[in-house]
Amino acid sequence: SCCSATPSVKDIRNEMIDAEFTLEVAKLNQLVYQIPNNESNETISDTLEQIIPTEKYDIIGWIDDDSTEVLVVTTKTTAEKKKIILVFRGTDGEAIDWTTNLDFGFGHFGPPNQTLD
């Protein structure tokens, strides 16, 4: 039929991931733990440039709001292949991180009547 009431969902379980890109993101994930907590806005740019490989990434920003830390970078490639990467820093032992973890709510993901597990 031409008009299905249920939207089609592409099954990506058998598609190959880009192993090289996955390794690069894993390395960024390790590096994000070297960024000091609660550093001033005046010095954080210099610190990020010392930790994050700027020959591969443009640093867009670092967000540290005392419970969530996020690094935002883009890859240094052509516009067609440029990727935006968000790297979240997980629990690193501070009490506020654990409080945030306990307050996390779970929800369903996916189109109606096709929840993904």
Please characterize this protein's 3D structure.
- The mean pLDDT is 77.
- With 117 residues, this protein is α+β, with helices and mostly antiparallel strands.
- Helix content is 27%, strand content 18%.
- The longest helix has 13 residues, at 19-31.
- A three-stranded antiparallel beta sheet has the order 1-2-3, with helices on one face.
- The radius of gyration is 19 Å and the shape is globular.
- The chain has helices at residues 19-31, 41-51, 95-102; strands at 57-64, 69-75, 84-89.
What order do the helices and strands come in, and which of them pair?
Elements: H1 19-31, H2 41-51, E1 57-64, E2 69-75, E3 84-89, H3 95-102
Antiparallel strand pairs: 1-2, 2-3
> What is the N-to-C succession of helices and strands?
HHEEEH
Low-confidence stretches: none
What is the percentage of strand-forming residues? 15-25%
Instruction: Assign an overall shape.
Output: globular
Q: Using only CA atoms, what is the Rg?
A: 19 Å
Please, how many helices?
3
End-to-end separation in angstroms reads 28 Å
Strands of the widest sheet, in order across it, are 1-2-3
Overall mean confidence score, pLDDT: 77
Helical fraction:
25-40%
Give the biggest beta sheet: 3 strands, antiparallel
Structural class: alpha+beta
Got a strand count?
3
